[in-house]
Amino acid sequence: MLDIRFHGHSSVQVTSEGHSIMIDPFISGSPMAATKLEDISVQYILLTHGHQDHILDAVELAKQNDATIIATHELATYLSWQGVKTISMNLGGSIKLPFGKVKMTQAFHSSGVVLDDEKQIVYMGMPGGFVIELGGKTIYHAGDTGLFGDMKLIGERHNIDLAFLPIGDVFTMGPEDALVAAEWVQADFVVPIHYNTFPPIKQDGEAFVAELAEKDIRGKALKPGETLHLP
User: 83: Cβ–Cβ under 8 A, 6 or more apart, which residues?
Assistant: First the structure.
C-alpha cells in the first residue's frame, strides 16, 4: 500500500510502511501549496534538478526531519555545504535504501541555481528523473523534461505502477507530448504535474486525464494536499 500526497507543482510525497520520501519540495514559495512545511515528515528527499521551484525547501525540510537528500553529485555537494546529509548519484545509477531502490533516469531540461545578487548561475549537474521501488510498487517521476525516445526503454525495462509526468509546456512537455510519454512509459496510472503554478504553465489537468482515458490509460489530476492510495 502506498499513500501518494501531492503538494502542488512537482512536489510529491510517497509513504509506505513507515517510510516516507519527498520529491522536489517546493512548498513555502508555491502559490498552490496546501500544507505547511513544518507539518511534513520524511526520511529522504529526492531532487530531480537544481531549479528553485524544485529545491527551495530541500535544506529546511532535511534539517527539520534529519532527512537525507539524494541528488546529482553537483547538486548534492552544493546542498551538503549548507549542513545537511546528502547522497550523490547520477544518471543511470541506482542505490538501495532502507525503503527499497532508487534509480536516476535521464531528463531533457536544464539545471542551475540563479544567484540574482551576484548575477551568476551555478551549474547543478544534469537534470534527471527517478524510478522508485517502494512498498512493492514502482513509481516513475519524470522530473522536468521534454519528450524523449528513451521513455520507451524506461517503460520496457520497468513495470511502472504510477507515473508523474509534467504537462505545463513552455519549460517542459505540454499535454500533447505528455500523452505520448504516457503511452511510452506504459504506466498503470498517470498523474500530471508541473502545471498551473504560474501563468506561463497554465493547463487543464482534467482535460489531460480525459485524453488519457481515450487511450485506455487511467489517471487523475490531483489537487494540492490530496492523497492517492495505491493498494
Answer: 59, 63
pLDDT band at 37 (very low <50, low <70, confident <90, very high): very high
Could you say which DSSP state residue 222 is in? P
Task: Give the CA distances from residue 22 to residues 11, 199, 230, in Å, rounded to whole numbers and listed in that order.
Answer: 7, 25, 17
Q: Residue 1: is its pLDDT beyond 90? A: no
Model-level pTM greater than 0.90?
Answer: yes
Q: Each residue of 61-94: b (16+ CB within 10 Å) or e? A: bbeebebbbbbbbbbbebbbeeebbbbbbeeeee
> Among residues 56, 5, 65, which one has the least CA distance to residue 28?
56
Instruction: Lay out the sheet containing 128-134: strands in order across.
Output: 94-97, 100-106, 128-134, 137-141, 162-166, 189-193, 218-219
Domains of the chain in start order, with CATH, are: 2-220 (3.60.15.10)
CB 43 within 8 A of CB 87: no
Give the angle subtended at the CA of 33 by the CAs of 200 and 132, to the nearest 5°: 90
The tens digit of pLDDT for each residue in 129-178 reads 999 999 999 999 999 999 999 999 999 999 999 999 999 999 999 999 99
pLDDT of residue 142: 98
